[in-house]
Amino acid sequence: MPEDRIDPWASETYDYGRLIEKFGIEQFSMERFPMPDPPIQFRRGVVFGCRGFDPVHRAIVDGTGFAVLTGLAPSGKMHFGHKMVLDQVLAYHRWGADVFVAVADIEAWGARGVPLDESRHLAIEEYILNYIALGLPQERTSIYSQSKRKDVMDIAFEMSRPVNWSTMKAVYGFTDETNMSHIMSPLVQVGDILHVQLDKYGGPRPTIVPVGVDQDPHIRLSRDIAKAFRYYSVQETEQGTGVFLKGDRPMEDLDAAETELLKHGKVEANKPYRALYPEMSVEEANLRMLELEHSRGSYGFFAPSSSYNMFMTALTGGKMSSSIPESAIFLTDTPEEAIKKMKAAVTGGRTTAEEQREQGGEPDICSVYEMFNFHLIESDDELAAVRKECLDGDRLCGACKAQAAELLESFLSDLAEKREAARDIVKEYMDD
Ligand code: TRP
Ligand code: SF4
Predict the structure, then answer these.
(1) CB of 284 within 8 A of CB of 30?
(2) What is the pLDDT of residues 145-165, one digit of tens each?
(3) Taking the CB of the first residue and of the last residue of the chain, which one, N or C, has fewer CB atoms within 10 A?
């Protein structure tokens, strides 16, 4: 990975600790964000980082509604790494979120040359049928293609005004040779992420975008753009909460803010400094200002929140990838194909059975254990037992793989059945 950049289009492995330090990603944990009935990905450390998660957390705990957005670049097959994101989307839906699924046909075209009609076909066959089979409900769900949703493209154009070429080069490593469609695609993704807050799609509200950490540049760009369109910046200061009018806004906006804030308590004003100091929390002041901006004709978008998944380890070692078929189990693999890959997988076992009985295995570097951990074993007690048996040398890899194969077989054959059933209803999920 380049020293100072995350490349969304490269297939690389990451040092998660370094990402947190270097790119200012915040640490995510269940202690920090307790939630009712969390999915495996939250309980078992798959989600390791986030940006600006607090408003989403509050919406979950208070049941006040929010949006979740996921997108798919239809360039390969859906594997278990992709499933981890969908599992979270389903959890967010249970917690009251409206679900948006972007078929990233513009990005697939710009970055990989996949024609638009092929994207749609691939998206349905490889992803959306699986999403439905995995339990994505139709209510409160909207699936669309980037190229067909004008509101997404309009936001991409209008809101890219604060972004210049030098930023795009620095963030994405674009060069003079990069094609224009590729250059535009991250801005279209910003359109995906922000358009769900237009009134037509539910209005300004917290939005969570659960992604692999390779998508972080798009998240930062979206957050920066949302902030650039604000009238006020609301910050913690030495004098408490500060509301500052941006340089390009007229003084009437400061007066309007003062009138609004005065309805809720005392406000100290420093007008030459374009500043107000209301007696309330930063959070509350920010919410009031977002509402005010919205009522005065601005977007009033919340800065979108993100959560970051670890990548799954490839069955062959390294990072799982659609372009290396042996590295991943695809959701459309037959049970036979899947089991064959599983049987050939790199484990944390020792060279001989005897050594393993003596020293125990190493579940933390074992791709079979990872399948149990992230997908196949829902019960925490059962998983702990597998782990202990492995560590104690009471479990050998052959038998362990056989158990994984059995679980995998029943999972995949059940999924295949549900996928076929989904064919009849998939059209009803597609908004455009
Ligand atoms: N860029 C994402 C990928 O490569 C796909 C995507 C498009 C996306 N729009 C999105 C992801 C919005 C999250 C949110 O997989
Ligand atoms: Fe992995 Fe199972 Fe072998 Fe342990 S016993 S190293 S969990 S395959």
Answers:
(1) no
(2) 999 999 999 999 999 999 999
(3) C
SS in 3 state form for 40-73? HHHHCCCEEEEECCHHHHHHHHHCCCEEEEEEEC
Phi, psi values for residue 51, rounded to 5°:
-130, 130
pLDDT score for 2: 53
User: Which tokens belong to 371?
Assistant: 């399948």
Class of domain 333-429 as given by CATH: mainly alpha
Interval between CA 77 and ligand 2 midpoint (Å): 27
| 319 CA from centroid of ligand 1 (Å) | 19
Contact 56, 306 (CB under 8 A): no
Our answer on whether the CB atom of 211 is closer than 6 Å to any ligand 1 atom is yes
- Burial-class residue 4 by CB neighbours within 10 Å (0-12, 13-18, 19+): exposed
What are the backbone angles phi and psi of residue 305, rounded to the nearest 5°? Answer: -100, 155
Yes or no: say if 213 and 23 are a contact pair by the CB < 8 Å rule: no
pLDDT-based confidence at 18, cuts 50/70/90? confident
Q: What is the pTM of this model?
A: 0.94
Provide the 3-class DSSP secondary structure of residue 311: coil
DSSP letter string, 117-156: HHHHHHIIIIIIHHHHHTT--STTEEEEEGGG-HHHHHHH
pLDDT for the residue numbered 52 = 96
Going by CA atoms, what residue is nearest to atom 3 of ligand 2?
397
Fold of the domain spanning 16-229+302-309: Rossmann fold (3.40.50)
Answer for the pair 48, 28: CB distance below 8 angstroms, yes or no. yes
Q: Which ligand is in closest contact with the Cα of 365? A: 2
Numbered ranges of CATH 3.40.50.620 in the chain: 16-229+302-309
3-state class of 84 per DSSP? helix
Amino acid at 87: D
Q: How far apart are CA 328 and CA 336, in angstroms?
A: 14
Q: Which of 6, 119, 192 to mutate to test the pocket of ligand 1 (most atoms within 8 A of CB)?
A: 192
Higher pLDDT, 121 or 8: 121
Task: Kindly report the average pLDDT of the chain as a whole number.
Answer: 94
What is the reported pLDDT for 3?
60
